[in-house]
Amino acid sequence: MLSNDLSHWRVLVVYWRQVERTHFRGAGNRIGYGVAIRKAASSLWEGRWANGGAAVARIEHFVPGQVVQTIGPLARVLRPLPAGVAGAYITAYTSPGDLVLDLFCEGETVIREAAATEREVLAVNFNPVAILAVRGLAGLAGCQALDTALTRLGDAPKAGRPLREHLHALYSAPCPQCHRPVPADYFVWDRERDEPVEKRYHCPACGSEGLIPVQPADLEALERIDPRGFSYWYVLDRVAPLGDPNRDQARRLLNLYTPRALYALTTLLIKIEALYPDSPQQEALKWVLLSCLEQCSNLHAADGEERSEAAWPRRLRLPARFVERNVWQVFMEASDLARQAMAAPALPLNAQARIEACTVRRLSRELPPGNVALIITAPPAYDYTFWALSYLWSGWLLGPEAAAALKSLLPHRRPDWDWYRRALTAAWRALRPALRDDGRAVLIFTTEQLPLVEVSLLALIGAGYGLESSSCMRTRCATAGITAWSFLLISSRGQRAVHRIPMLWKRPFTELLCALLSTSCGCVVSPWPGRTCTPPSTLRSPTRGCWARP
User: Fold this and answer.
1) Are 270 and 159 in contact (CB under 8 A)?
2) Does the pLDDT value for residue 322 go beyond 50?
3) CATH number (domain holding residue 78)
């Protein structure tokens, strides 16, 4: 709701003058940024950010939700919407039979809560592996169907023996106590020496176990695998065929796997596609295999017997000591997670509830005009590591067509928030025709990545949407504190164009943005929960475009 209190306007003007005097010494900057933001504030004051001041927000408070704990592949990086939040907005702003769109689906929340209220729902994501992680098990009737598929896969012949025995043999060496062959649980590699130096094992025959130095038999087993054999070229051609400009990038990403892990993972993939062509069993087994791709890379650091697998890797650089896990053991562990996931109620997928991998450009062409009543989503975080690995895994599991959707993300290794804003603006602008005249877009953030919040809002404003209400609350989850933001926006078709706000990567602009939100919503919004806006003269300068906390 728009605030009619003149004091908000006066505070905003005074604040802007402080920012202008402190950070814009040149006349050109004062004219450019000063005029643009003053016009944006003026348009806010005149009501253009809320559809001419006539918008009526039926939810004017922060909607608390429960943190959704996910299991399975990508659980460390995907951020599903909190349970209960989507349902509240869907009930308030749509009617039974309306279409609800989750534009950047990373969980089941919107699908389940929309289906429970008899709305049609379409959940999409440009990232194919994110969709696989959410939808992979939906096609199976139950755990028995999964167990049948796993048994058939493990019994499939490979090199004169069952596949499970063949893969276990890749990691086997004589037990140091009883000298029976025993597979290792994992190997610890030294990056500089480019070879394993330790291994963890447990012998079921004599009961001995521990982390011990590798034996000559372990190194001999590794030498039998060609680092540039069939598996390497098979995966490389699936990710980036000959002539693809990203082929060198695909080569570098494949180096994140040891030759043995690459061989074992590719062997599993070939068997899965041969045994279950175009079937729900194939997608479910690829869900399990995706978990293996995540856990069997060389990005997991090792420190003695402790393996740091809980945190998502922040960069694509091998640790000084990293872990190579037994692929078949990881596959069985992921199968157990699949059984746990299937114990929950099945995802209600049908003609009224769909989930698919789709780019925004294709979606904007397929959706009829004025068909969407509500868009509710959480914009994807800027995570180059996840994007690059998703590019590799999409091609590895699904082929080059799936990987092609992520090629445009590969050049942006360093945070480029201006590019990200332009990309989001183009996406939201393309979807405006599909949104009804009375339709709304709701953004839900459960992140402390403040530039993401700012960029997402600026992208929507630049695409012609207007802010109707916002709320922010400091909440707690099971593992760490998170800041939850909610923004309700409307499409301003038929209204005067909203002035574009320029990107100004200095912290005062973030506080100015929050002042604008506070004026429009009649509530106090601070960029850092629990703090009031700091005068510009006391702020620290950013370092390399990153945000710096005082």
Assistant:
1) no
2) yes
3) 3.40.50.150
519: left (phi over 0), alpha (psi -120 to 50) or beta: alpha
Q: Count the domains in the chain.
A: 2
Which residues is 157 bridged to in the sheet? 162
190 domain-assigned: yes
CA of residue 547 relative to chain centroid, distance: 21
Residue pair 323/190 in contact by the 8 Å Cβ criterion = no
Residue 138 is predicted with a pLDDT of 81
Q: Taking the model in full, what pTM does it have?
A: 0.81
Give tens-digit pLDDT for 520-535: 333 333 333 333 333 3
Answer yes or no: is 531 within a domain. no
Express each pLDDT in 278-304 by its tens digit. Answer: 888 999 999 999 999 999 999 999 874
Coil, strand, or helix at residue 83? strand
Could you tell me the residue range of the domain that residue 446 belongs to? 53-130+352-381+403-494
Q: Please give the Cα distance from 24 to 400 (Å, whole number).
A: 48
Which 3 state secondary structure label does DSSP give 155? helix
Rounded-to-integer distance, Cα 138 and Cα 141, Å: 8
Cα–Cα nearest to 187, from 207, 173, 176: 173
Which of 44, 134, 97 has its CA nearest to residue 374?
97
| Residue appearing with tokens 């092609």 | 404
On whether the CB atoms of residues 345 and 325 are closer than 8 A, the answer is no
- DSSP letter for 65, please: -
